[in-house]
Amino acid sequence: MPGAAGVAAVGLVLSGPYWLPRALVALRVRVFAAVNGPEGVVVPNDLVGPGEFLRLYSDPAADGRSRGAGLSDLFWYWLAPGPEVHQEHLEPGPRHAAVARTTTEVLAGTSAELSARAAACAARVLDEQVPGDVSLVRLRDLMMPVWAEFFHELVFGEPCSRAVRDLITGNARDVVDSLKNTRLRHMRRRERLTRHLLGRLAAGEVPHELPAELATDLDKAHYLQGTFFNTAVVQMSEAMAHLLLALAEHPRVQSRCRDGGPDGGYDERYLGHVMNEALRRYPLFGIAHRITSAPIDSGAGEGYPAGTVLCFDYPAYHATGIERPEDFDPDRWEHLSVRDAHHIPFGVAANRPCPAWRLAPLVTRAVTHEVLDRFALHSSVSHTRSIPHRAPCLLVRLGHRLPQHRLAAAMASLRVRDRWEDVGRSLLQLGFGTAMVLHARRLRPAATYFAHHDAQGRPLHPTDAPGDTGTGDTHAAHHCPYPH
Fold it and tell me: Which of 106, 380, 419, 468 would staple 415 via disulfide (CB 3.0–4.6 Å)?
């Protein structure tokens, strides 16, 4: 008979999936804070409520993007190559204005054209990737080729070959996996896409006029890579993974979307509610940081001098002003207006909102139709905003009858596998995350760049003072809980 110590050890091991991942995440946050120092004021907080949060986020002085924040070194490290010309991280001024205009032009199109293009890309990928009647997939991985093809068509005006699609998805997966600390970054993989884009630019095969403010072809290639083939592909894939996983976990919601309309078809209004709820419950941004260029009075007895790093906590803001914020409840949108809710999935209009704010809902709806036209979705895995497991899901082709006992067994197996995968994944995240944070801290890519360039990317003359790379007043009492 095993002794009490042996029984306790076995119990500790068997219960590991229920407590170890949370403990490792907490440890990882502490490691990141220890490495990066006490930087950032997180809002909303006890002094800045949801009303002041929105006013603070919209303040014209909350306009710094990279220069002067240690957190920028991490983002630049993970988004390399070319973070200095990534639209999200450009400082305000003529360079950002030119890049933003170009992005808007590339994303332009009628609702019908954009929806049809997205539906066609989804149909091709789904028919290729999921040929059987029952398939176990990772939704994020399934969606990446869809958006690789879609944004390739927007950028180049032509279909995407399989080889180029593999370049784009390999690049995007490497970026998002490193951001989530499940893999180390692999720059050679990313640079293969850069070389392809340089070749297309040299051959004059980009039909859009790219900003003259991006001085070299390498800058232009990095702009295309970062904006469309990093951020756009990753964000749309994650948005679709969250939406489809929520449908898989709520069969009645899925059924109503597909069959609840007045004619027995899609209930489009309800699908809109589901999309809003998915973006509320699982916002694509955890923390967005901004650096103040001038003092700001929050109006709540708290002042922020120039150089303060403000960390805007999307999940915390989305959880205010409603009952049962942890529940996934699309019905709440029957009586809740997007305009009046604490709901900013694409940022705020006054502070450089996501350039895909119009496009994303259109194409999300179109791709969701393509999926639901083909499959019933089932899943029993955990569902968190960071979705590091890439959303495992069982797809059962409509019309194929899967016996209930087989479905129940599959869901039980999926749940157990997810629990144990989470243990191993948390250990990897702790190790890889710590290694990359230390590497980024050593390289300091943003701070090094601004030591030699001004806010518009112009090289500083040797006699010029280097750009400010300090963080100003960081209000050490509020640590930015990065990663989030």
Answer: 380
